[in-house]
Amino acid sequence: MNGVIFDLKRFAVHDGRGIRSTLFLKGCPLRCPWCQNPEGLSRELRLWHQPATCIRCGTCTAACPEKALSLTERVRIDREKCTLCGVCAERCPTGALSLDGREISAEQAAELLLRDLPFFGNGGGITLSGGEATAQPEFALEVLRLCRERGAGTAMETCLFAPWETISRFLPYVDYFLTDLKLFDPEEHLRATGVPNAPILANFRALSEAGADILARTPLIPGFTDTEENIRSIARFVVSVNREIPCELLNYNPLCRSKYAALDEEYPVSGGPLSEERMEAFRAILREEGVRHIVKES
Question: Which domain holds residue 78?
């Protein structure tokens, strides 16, 4: 069973409990304007150009068999001509050109994740992220199964936008679900992400009823999710499902802008991280609405 990944992060401490290795799968059904991992949006591979490391030597344009590259103030990619053969990336002397993922077998993925098994201890393990792991369900399930067989704890970051029949298949293989609740208002969620949130909320409730260990996460994005009404509504929903479910508010991280530059795309979110004062004000809203367990970013 093969899948398509775009990254593997070792000694991760933000993707679940303890020390973890995190595998990032390509493909996501949402189109959040603030996406931190645009390389994970499509399952298809894309060619990236990093202007900061490009020396404009012209090696790539000469090497491209399809003549899909041109050199102006930066390397321009004609994506209709580009066949993703990778020749330009192989020839680039500075690594300014690269493909944003690779195909890998479940066995290979599990082996990479489990290299750090001795460091996981009792609380750590492996995490599947993305993109969205449920977008490649067969591959993701096989990776989880193989890791569980070797004694690794398992976690999965998920937006929960998938049929319950798909989500429920992960219950026997996932110890800890890190779930995204971005926007509670249905119209705002549809406008921002391109999909309705009714299936997400229904899956969240179903996971809780199935006895899953869940963390509810909300990214605080300037101009999108960082409103009192949104955080209060999400808190009320979580409490209505199970007041023992912990909640975490994720501060905005603007570092992903360089990724959009590599794709020659504009990043639509302006501003920087929220101050600790504002973060604490939002956490106070969670407490006011009855959330008993609030996880703070380390």
Answer: 47-99
Q: Are residues 95 and 238 in the same domain?
A: no
Q: How many domains does the chain have?
A: 2
Peptide bond just before 101 cis, omega within 30 deg: no
Note whether 54 and 175 are same-domain residues.
no
- Rounded CA gap, 147 and 161, in Å? 24
Based on the fold, state whether residues 76 and 108 are members of the same structural domain: no
Each residue of 210-244: pLDDT tens digit? Answer: 999 999 999 999 999 999 999 999 999 999 999 99
pLDDT in tens, 171-218: 999 999 999 999 999 999 999 999 999 999 999 999 999 999 999 999
- Cα-to-chain-centroid distance, residue 182: 13
* Domain match, 77 and 206 both: no
Task: Give the three-state DSSP class for 42.
Answer: coil
Give pTM, 2 decimals: 0.90
Give the CA distances from residue 224 to residues 128, 132, 140, 216, 232, in Å, rounded to whole numbers and listed in that order. 26, 21, 30, 18, 14
| 24, two tokens | 């990032």
CA 23 to CA 21: how far, in whole Å?
A: 7
DSSP state of 290: T
